Every structure is written in C-alpha cells, then in structure tokens.
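Sequence and structure are kept together here, with a separate record for every protein. An example record follows, reproduced without changes.
>
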Amino acid sequence: MNNFLIHLTAMAFSACGAVAAWAAPIDVIDTYGVYVIAEKGYAKVGSYTTRDDQFVDFNHLNEIPFVIRADQSLKLVVYKKDFNENSIGLELRPIDTAINIRQIKFNVKPLPKADMYELTVDAPVKDGTMLHVRAEYFFTTNFGAIMLGETQAQLVKYFGQKQLPDASIVKQYLDDALVAFPANAELKGLAGYWEKAAKTEKDKKSYSHVEEKWQQYQQTEKISLKVRYLNDLVGEINGYLNDHPNGAKADEAKQRKRHAEEKLKEYEKML
C-alpha cells in the first residue's frame, strides 16, 4: 500500500472516531507546509481550524495526526516561499490534565532546496507531547498540531498511572479521551478504575466536613458552642449520607449523628 493510500485509510478511521490519523510519512517534500522529521521520511503537521485555536481538547484528539520518530529529538522542515523564522512559533503540550503549554526555541538553517529550512529543537521531547505550530500557513486560526508518538498508546500510558492527583478531573479527561477513541479497550478498563477512584475521593472530601465539625465539638468546653457545632455536625452528616448512603464512613456517620442528637437534648436542658 503506498503512502497516499495509507494516509487515506488512517483518515477514514479517524472520521469514525476509531483511531487518530497517522501522519503517514513521505519520502520527498514537494508541497509547501511544515513537516516533522519522522523515523522514516517526513510527516506533515495538520491544520486545526474547527474549534478552539489555543489547544486541542481530549475529545478531539482523534482529529490530530500523530508521528513516530526514531528517538526523542525534534526536527522540522519548513517549506515556504519567503520564510521568516519570526513568523513561526513552536509550543509543546504534554498529555496531562493540567493544561501546560510551553513555548520552545529552535535553531534554523537553510537546506539545499530553495524555500526549504530545517528547524531543530535542542532539548529532547518525549512522546506523549503535542506539538503546536503557530504560523500563517494554517488558514484562519494559524494553528497546526501533531502528536509525537501514537496517540492512543500515549493516552493509555498516561491514564495508567494510578497515582495521578485529582481523580475526578482525571476521570473527566479520560471520559473525553473515550469520546475520541470509543473502541479502545484499555481506556475503557482504566475508566472503571478512575470512576471508583473519583467516588472514593469525593467520599473522603465530603466526610472531611463532618470530621471538621466533630473535632470542633470535641475541642470546646462551652455548652453554647457545643450545641452550635453539634447542629452543624448533624447538617454535614445529613449531606454526607444523602450523597454517599453506602460510603466508606456511612456507619460512623450514623453513629455520630445519634450521639449528636442525644447530646443536643442533654445540652438544651442545661441552657
């Protein structure tokens, strides 16, 4: 299968949301554009014009081509008439729930072919990073993007880190990734883990409010303050049990509620 047919096949899968488009490498650059030097040949950076031109949301990652490189070095070729290095900017955004977009510097040298230049980034760039190219060559938004490394494999690698912070946010991003790649069995499996982790996290956060009121009640000797904190405690417990009827602390919450109600009756007679 030649490179043109491979590219069409990859785009067809992308259209149905199955896989990200592989930027099938070409051997010879003969049309203007920006290209990443691939493991074999050159992969053209795609123009991203349909939505937000600041970054690509995870649910649209299947619309972004990816490129396989030989190593972590990052080199590009710009083929453009009257090219000016000040007219192009490069940014890196790793696969992460925190949107961290970093501008990077590059060196430029002309190549033997007219209108063709090589851009070299000194520091290594890991797979699992999206390359943004800001340049006038990308139509209305001036924004091109390509993923370094196979997109789905890098998503599985990222979400497979079981100690990621903010489980509820991780779950949201993984849900978005599954919109882009609904058939990915590994992402589906990880979704189950992060759904449970998000519930556990929410449970702990919710019960922390109960714990706070319980400690306030325990630490004061003034009856009027005990009554105040116990009333607050009952309110927090009711909220916790409403949201987490089978939560990890449900039994303890019920015991504390009974204690609070008994103590409130006792203290009210003393006021």
Notes: Confidence is low (pLDDT under 50) at residues 1-18. The chain has six helices and eleven strands. The helical segments are 3-15, 151-159, 167-180, 185-219, 223-243, 250-268. The first strand starts at residue 33 and ends at 37.
